[in-house]
Write a structure and sequence with these properties.
The complex is a heterodimer of chains A (about 120) and B (about 110).
Chain A: E1 4-7, E2 10-13, E3 19-25, E4 32-38, E5 44-51, E6 57-58, E7 67-70, E8 76-81, E9 90-97, E10 110-114
Parallel strand pairs in A: 2-10
Antiparallel strand pairs in A: 1-3, 3-8, 4-5, 4-9, 5-6, 7-8, 9-10
Chain B: E1 4-5, E2 10-14, E3 19-25, E4 32-38, E5 45-51, E6 56-58, E7 62-67, E8 72-77, E9 86-93, E10 102-103, E11 107-112
Parallel strand pairs in B: 2-11
Antiparallel strand pairs in B: 1-3, 3-8, 4-5, 4-9, 6-7, 7-8, 9-10, 9-11
Classes of the chains: A mainly beta (about 120), B mainly beta (about 110).
């Protein structure tokens, strides 16, 4: 299957600070990146979709100024949680897609805890 | 709207028995369905998929059945093993529209020794 990495795998930050999460597709070119978040014992919820070199499209209810997404290259996308609050504590997961047929694969996730 | 739901939040199965996990979807436009397995603290792991022009697909120890008439999807796991313990999600996609994958609520599969 496709090799997708996320960094960091877990992070603890103080309320009010910003945190950047990286997602890399290591063996294929990701023309589109999907970002999900998952609260404990809940399902994955799609946050936003980004195409390489374009602005991200956010799902209803997701604040675009709070969750900044950059997809500047075909192998890297970043999600920055700005001015994080405890309610942003969640498991953030990326899913890169391209033309290789690896559309079903997800990253390993990043656990964010805001104190 | 798009909604993929699951009938049972928790399923307990004896080791060695077969498991059947069910899923209902509401969007008749969905034409691609995927089952994922998620272990604690990890990202979803692809298990098997099926397109709407099929009603059954088999993999290694797993079978997915699709009933478009009643908008129902199921995952059958044969000879359940302790390593099958996880949360299972069905997900749907409208392939002709975009690559968005929308997840259902999930079923926790618990294997009894």
């Amino acid at each position: 299957g496709a090799v997708v990495s996320q960094h960091p795998s877990w992070v603890i930050c103080k309320s009010g600070t910003s945190v950047k999460i990286e997602c890399r597709s290591l063996d294929f070119q990701a023309t589109t990146m999907f970002w999900y978040r998952q609260f404990p014992k809940q399902s994955l919820m799609l946050m936003a979709t980004s195409n390489e070199g374009s602005k991200a499209t956010y799902e209803q209810g997701v604040e675009k100024d709070k969750f900044l997404i950059n997809h500047a290259s075909l192998t890297l996308s970043t999600l920055t949680v700005t001015s994080a609050h405890p309610e942003d504590s969640s498991f953030y997961i990326c899913r890169p897609t391209g033309t290789s047929g690896y559309e079903q694969y997800f990253g390993p996730g990043t656990r964010l805890t805001v104190t | 709207g798009e909604n993929v739901g699951l009938h049972l939040p928790t399923l307990s199965v004896q080791e060695g028995d077969n498991s059947i996990i069910n899923c209902a979807y509401s969007n008749s436009a969905s034409d691609y369905f995927i089952w994922y397995k998620q272990e604690s603290g990890k990202g979803p792991q692809f298990i098997i998929d099926i397109r709407s022009n099929m009603d059954k697909r088999q993999g290694q120890r797993v079978t997915v059945l699709l009933n478009k008439t009643v908008k129902h999807l199921s995952l059958q796991i044969a000879a359940t093993q302790p390593g099958d313990s996880a949360v299972y999600f069905c997900a749907e996609n409208i392939a002709k529209r975009d690559d968005k994958i929308i997840f259902g609520k999930g079923t926790r599969l618990h294997i009894l020794p």
